[in-house]
Queue: 2 jobs
Job 1
Amino acid sequence: MIEILIVFIKIIFALIWLLTLTLYLTWVERKESAVIQDRIGANRASILGIRIIGLFQPFADAIKMIFKEDFTPSFSKKFLHDLAPFLSFFFVAITISAIPFGDFISIGGKTINLLILDINVGLLFVLAMLSLGIYGILIAGWSSNNKFTLIGGLRGAAQLISYEVALGLSLIGLIMVYPSLNLSQIVHFQGELLFGVVPKWGIFLQPLGFMIFFFAALAETKRVPFDLPEGESEIIGFFTEYGGLKWGLFMMTDFMEVIIVSCLLTTLFFGGWQVPWLATDGFHFPWGGEWLLSHWVVVLFQVAAFNIKVFFFSWLQVLIRWTYPRFRYDQLMDMGWKLLIPLSLVNIVGTGILMSI
Amino acid sequence: MIKAIEYFIEILRGSVITARHFFVNMFFHILKVMGIKTKRKGAVTIQYPEEKKELASRHRSLHRLMKRENGKPRCVACMLCVTACPSECIYVEAAEDPDLEIQKYPAKFIIDLSRCCFCGFCVEACPEDAIRMDTDQIELAQYSREDLLYDLDKLIG
Ligand code: SF4
Ligand code: SF4
């Protein structure tokens, strides 16, 4: 009974974390793009005249979207048309359940892992769910019964499938180094030290794998420079026939994908919740010093480290989105099939050779 | 291969430029929040309704009709501005003035601002320097077209 309750509480916390972050990522996107372009950005949304640098903007957006007309074109396949945004939202949101936020907390002799689903195939689960998200796009494009949305959906599917391969292959080297598919175990492995000094993070062991994964993951999020499925500014994309909250769900999915990708980058390549030299009882510095901390402070450090890393990667992705122009479609496909996949194969072989020495 | 690496370096430089803009602007924003005054601002934005840009001295804004010493309009209803106006938005109705020096005065003088393009030709055309465009009023939006018909009472001043 108490187990179920704990899982339930964890799910609620994770969802609140994800949704607030998603909401505020829209704010960060606006503000960051504004600061990059020497502007100020949305700062007018106010409650009772109080407007703290536009922090209420996401709520204003949400309210606007909720009260818009929820229309379905008469020529569309109604059921699938309604289903598509929920599919794409669901498959991205569920991946948060396999991401470890921290190590564990112990209350009254009970140890609670700070992740919802501690399964042995966590990594495969996340990749599988992310790739299932394609169905949302395909169904949206097809069920709208409009030539342009269909083309947009197919374009999206082609893009995602070609980058899915590179995404998966780039992680094989990682799995060879940390012999586990369990995300919490991968994070535990990254707590060890390399040459007794540097933490054994994925970025140090798999720099090429990190780069390939980063590119492929950027393509997975379907945002500029890889935004061919939607092409908000000029190309007609797969969600042309959507409006109101259903369109909002697609938009939220995009932002959520950014966060999930940041979580994955953090977990796989930047040590997840690991703080360098922090063990369960405090810091043990390689030059001999020690700083012992109580359990709760350690947990706080770990969760904060995870969050800071995720924020940083979200920030970086927004920066990339506001820096680069869009790829042409053939360049996009070329990069996926002719550059990233061969490179990831090289990475696998190279990792194998290095490990056998 | 060398070309590809060059491209890659250029790509990285692009993000360095945006990141530099971000950090430099953030630095000045933070200075402002901490209450330190700097010459350079974090953003070039002017927060319009609260903050206004100073108008240039040669600007053209809402028209005004000049007055004589006795308070009557200086206009002699010569219709030159009516003729010069490219938007044909000035309507003047002349009436006889008892003063022989003046001879005519405008009984009606209406400018339809909904059609005016603020070219300033009326000001140039006027032989009496009776019309000027220097009231500093540039926020002239109204909810109905009728409110944009400015007559003698509104223009004189
Ligand atoms: S400013 Fe130009 S358009 Fe307007 S009333 Fe004068 S002449 Fe006509
Ligand atoms: S040109 Fe000057 S004097 Fe002549 S009608 Fe216009 S405002 Fe009056």
Job 2
Amino acid sequence: MIEPGGVDDPLADGFAAREPWAFEEAYRRFGPLLYSTAYNVLGNAEDAADCVHDALARVWRSSNAYTKARGAVRSFLTVCVRNEAISRTRSQARRTRLSERLAAEPQEYEELGAGDPIERDRLRAALSRLPPEQSEPLRLAYFQGKTHTEIAAELETPLGTIKSRIAQGLRKLGAALRDGEGPRRYE
Amino acid sequence: MSSGEHIGELAELYAIGALGESERRDVERHVAGCTACGQRLGEAEDDVAAMEAARLQHDPPEQLQRRVRAMLHRPAGQWSRYAPAVAAALILGLLPSAFFWEQNRTMHAAMEADSAAIGRVASTPHRSVAFSQMSDGSAASVMYGPDGSWYVVLVRGASRALSVAWMHDGQRTMLGTATPHGDVAMLYLPKSHRMNQLALMDGDRVVAQAQLAY
Ligand SMILES: [Zn+2]
């Protein structure tokens, strides 16, 4: 079966070869997800747009950022954009504002009518099903953009333990979210 | 992560965004040449993408698509026109804030097209001279190429737009306007001749002057 956006997709070949059409197509398919990813970290439209643009520009000009071993272009770009967004918040020392805003996110979910409520609940539900020792560092990393060293210090837990818990937690969370997703969607 | 080692759990940490800049670069360097770690990272990225897809979605502004397209189809080398100004701004630590000033949008885009080249230009020889003191407390300086091929006028603490004039032979040639964005105003002037005296003007009034040496 050919998986759109996955490794058998011509998009992945074009993307690996840094063809302009593949970048345009990737933006056409994944633009809303990428922009939302940036927006969820940065909290405003202008910064989110700049962030997506800059992340794409960074990939565009680097010759080996994406290899086909990496798999879905969609996932690769999502993480590129997210890391770019986190760098911006770190470099601009907006950490406090970020954590305050992100800490308020669960309420925002309920107040805002936009988005798919079932989808939104699935993230929270999946997170709450993880054991606390996994969900807690995961939340600090995901919602507050903290580094593993900061998380280890904050939770007073050895770094190696924190790394493993984040890694295991993420794998479980991803599996839980994808279980309910049915066939993978890349559009 | 020491050299020769696989990335292990750094894959998941990378994907969730829990690595510092230098560890991130280490991971990127490693996966560029290691299929197994590339696959592990790809799987972690799938997990994070699933999380993002489960969150609130926002529609991107339409102009973003145009910006992306323009970035992809920009001919290589176009940045070079702006390189000295970009380099000057980099040296002065003004980026990226000065870029939000609309006039510098093209420069911003140009810089993104080739950061390595800009990195080289940033070490280009340049001179810098301060303008005389201004009564409102703002401070201006001009950076310029030793051959007079480019000039960047910068005003910090700028409260209003100031014109830049070239003073020569008892005459005044208006070169352009430095419009503030935030508290920084900037004007980039590619020129082919050496200008010895520049003035900042508020309307008809000269508010500061600079003497340039070559
Ligand atoms: Zn490896």
